[in-house]
Amino acid sequence: MDAVNLIVKRQVKKPVKTMYLYHQEGDSGVSYPEMVLALGYFDGVHRGHQEVIRTAREIASIKGKALGVMTFHPHPKTVLSSKVKEENMRYITPLPEKEEQLSKEQADYLFIVHFDKLFAALEPQEFVDQYVIGLHAVHVVAGFDFSYGRMGKGTMETLPFHSRKKFEQTTVGKVTDKDQKISSTLIKESILEGKIENANRLLGRSYSIGGKVVEGEQRGRTIGFPTANVQINEPYLVPAVGVYAVQMKIRNAWYNGVCNIGYKPTFHDEKSPNPEIEVHLFDFNEDIYGENVIVHWHAFIRGEKKFSSAEELVEQISQDKEKAKCILQSSLAP
């Protein structure tokens, strides 16, 4: 078998070796050890995905081999469908966030394969030859619904045939929660419907969004509730309009708060193109304009509504703040 037919465009130095692979003619020049390879798209890196990687990690430990995790970017829909554009895609974990989450899974190698038309045209055998056997995989682990190769013709049932007897495989069955299959689709639906507690349970952690604090209308300061206006910096899914109990990370420290996602109908008759994310932090009074922050979403409190006056809004925010404090005290208790 020839060396893997890939070009490594760049390598990021991390505890896990992150390799960005592009399908092109030529030898990558990189030599890999024998490894157990976990395969999947892994948007969300949810509990089902974690089970795939955990299984691969256990097998790698037993065999004394390296652990590799392979994912793909951008989303196949953006390549295979003329109706879906990458600039319009929204992810549970945009690529930097997915890398961050996967780097916590104790892999030796993280392979991020560029999904383009050349890659999509690979026959199942070509994918296995180049991206599995070529990476010295001795065992492959994936979910029961994983597919590979042109038009997804390769499945976990056909993988033994395509393996050329070079590696073994383990298929991870359906991981469920309350009799429902845990899936990225189900988590996306929960986020978009504001069912954050449900999304967090399926993820196995709090849903998070990264962004930068930018100047807003500064109206919150005039009514006694200063807010940080968070402008997201990656194509995250934004939860449904409403009020949430949140935490926000600033300069490596976490602060509790309450967040409103919406259009501020009390002060605006017309909707802006996108809802704003405004976080009021408890017991915090620092200038953080321009700071990169991370928001963790813990619980939905209520939907957005239009109030008859600023005074009525202030009263409601006070109630939201107390409710958020109770929620966070309960959910963060050891």
Automatic annotation (TrEMBL):
It comes from the Bacteria. Residues 202-329 form the Riboflavin kinase domain. GO terms for molecular function: ATP binding; FMN adenylyltransferase activity; riboflavin kinase activity. Pathway: Cofactor biosynthesis; FAD biosynthesis; FAD from FMN: step 1/1; Cofactor biosynthesis; FMN biosynthesis; FMN from riboflavin (ATP route): step 1/1. Keywords: ATP-binding, FAD, Flavoprotein, FMN, Kinase, Multifunctional enzyme, Nucleotide-binding, Nucleotidyltransferase, Transferase. Its EC number is 2.7.1.26, 2.7.7.2. SUPFAM superfamilies: Nucleotidylyl transferase (SSF52374), Riboflavin kinase-like (SSF82114). One of its GO terms (biological process) is FAD biosynthetic process. It catalyses: riboflavin + ATP = FMN + ADP + H(+); FMN + ATP + H(+) = FAD + diphosphate. Pfam families: FAD_syn, Flavokinase. PANTHER family: RIBOFLAVIN KINASE, RIBOFLAVIN KINASE/FMN ADENYLYLTRANSFERASE. Belongs to the ribF family. This is Riboflavin biosynthesis protein. It comes from Alteribacillus bidgolensis.
